[in-house]
Amino acid sequence: MKLYELATTPSARRVNLFLAEKGIEIERVPVDVRAGANLTDEFRAMSANGRIPLLALDDGGYLCESVAICRYLDELYPDDLALFGASPLERARVEMWQRIVELDGLLPAFQAFRNLSRIYQDRENCVEAWGHESRARLQAFLPRLEQRLGESPYLAGERYSIADISAYVLMGFLPRLEIEVASMPHIQRWLARVSQRPALGGG
């Protein structure tokens, strides 16, 4: 297998953190998204959404969308981490919080950054007003995350999961939007806890 990626992007970082948690090594192929390498006919023939990360399979097929890639690799390399949950209820809660973080956190963060920075104005219509609205929606979501992490050590419950990986990636993206969470003690405690994981450079 090969993973086509740009390691600094949030979506690729999510897959890389997942791989690090599971100890999986996959050949990386860098894709210069800023230069439009993902817009070529060759890349679009491989990727259903024209984006990275993209996993090239040994049978000649391809998988895109970061969580789909993580789910496939989790099934392919089962372990006791259970990053997608270990029971029917746990799996449902992981899926629930993963979707909440994705739709109410990461998506507006991406929309805010792309529309305000105009980084891809050469290939998409950037709407400054939508960027400001997306940033406001993200800011409105963070207190909900703070509340949840005051109720549970991890987003889906007692166990670290893909939902926490997604939320951690979101936290790392906030400085690009000049948003800080220093005044949110539950998020700070959670960040300190997850930062100790070996996959994140902790002990």
Automatic annotation (TrEMBL):
SUPFAM superfamilies: GST C-terminal domain-like, Thioredoxin-like. Gene3D superfamilies: 1.20.1050.10, Glutaredoxin (3.40.30.10). Keywords: Transferase. GO terms for molecular function: transferase activity. Residues 1-81 form the GST N-terminal domain. Residues 87-203 form the GST C-terminal domain. InterPro entries: Glutathione-S-Trfase_C-like, Glutathione-S-Trfase_C_sf, Glutathione_S-Trfase, Glutathione_S-Trfase_N, GST_C, Gtt2-like_N, Thioredoxin-like_sf. The keyword Coiled coil does not apply. PROSITE patterns: GST_CTER, GST_NTER. Pfam families: GST_C, GST_N_2. This is Glutathione S-transferase. It comes from Zobellella endophytica.
